[in-house]
């Protein structure tokens, strides 16, 4: 493994009662890098994100490898690790910013107490020092009058402030990796932008890498270095944000991009009407044969319906899992403008 890799995921598979919902994902995250996991609902983004913390739901079977570097030391394998080993990593090495801020905070303890407890759970500092770090963390995420607000309960915070407090919680122990699972879904557009900015600032401040789960390619353009596009539990395309957004090579990525408002796509791509990808993603129990996207793909041919594409390395170094990537036009949104909307 390359020495500059912080997190290495290989052939990750997650199944419920024998039905795979994440079907062999491989990717690396380097220190300080922002990797976005993108795809429609049900693609397996949240499950993948949770596997990075050893937090898959009860009843899930995980296979493959998720290895996290332990400072300069060896890598820790999270798949199959005993709960105490996972607990020792969480918060300290890798931390979660969940979708729903309310569920991440206990309603019965003041926010500052919860942050201080998080500090004391991974360091041996005094109560006073933990308290000081908690207040500093709240202050750092832009919570006004942090000393007083530390004594308040989560329900006394506004939605945006609560999300900031959760980011403070995730970053208070300066983890190497932060996993943020759609941290803005419950917020309006202005608050979303604020929260993503705070997350970016905190990531910079503590020097952490970030895995950001989102269904929103506009967020990717603004906040990610690299992108992994997922469909039906598999990788569709993986590369730098610039590579994928400026010239998608997988028809699915092109479809996601085509449905973005004009100002967010490459200049020539957003004209006429906003197309959407026709149809819906398959459920894990009813996957089509061949490429899972074939029934919705304007470029699908017989081979796509019978043979599942493996990731291939394209001319610019990105990985793309599509038999016809070389036939994807530029601008690629053309593909979907032909479809009935
Ligand atoms: N606890 C569970 N039991 C059974 N199936 C599950 C469970 N959690 C998730 N799944 C299934 O795994 C698949 C992927 O779910 P996941 O939540 O990872 O998708 P996602 O891409 O994050 O979607 P969303 O954006 O809606 O959160 C879905 O088809 C879902 O039904």
UniProtKB/TrEMBL annotation:
Gene3D superfamilies listed in its UniProt record: P-loop containing nucleotide triphosphate hydrolases
A GO cellular-component term linked to this record: plasma membrane
Top-level taxonomic group: Bacteria
UniProt domain ABC transporter: residue ranges: 7-257
Biological process according to GO: peptide transport
Keyword entries, A-Z: ATP-binding, Cell membrane, Membrane, Nucleotide-binding, Transport
Topology class, membrane: Peripheral membrane protein
Principal location listed in the UniProt entry: membrane
Gene Ontology molecular functions: ATP binding; ATP hydrolysis activity
Subcellular location: Cell membrane
Entry similarity comment: Belongs to the ABC transporter superfamily.
Protein name according to UniProt: ABC transporter ATP-binding protein
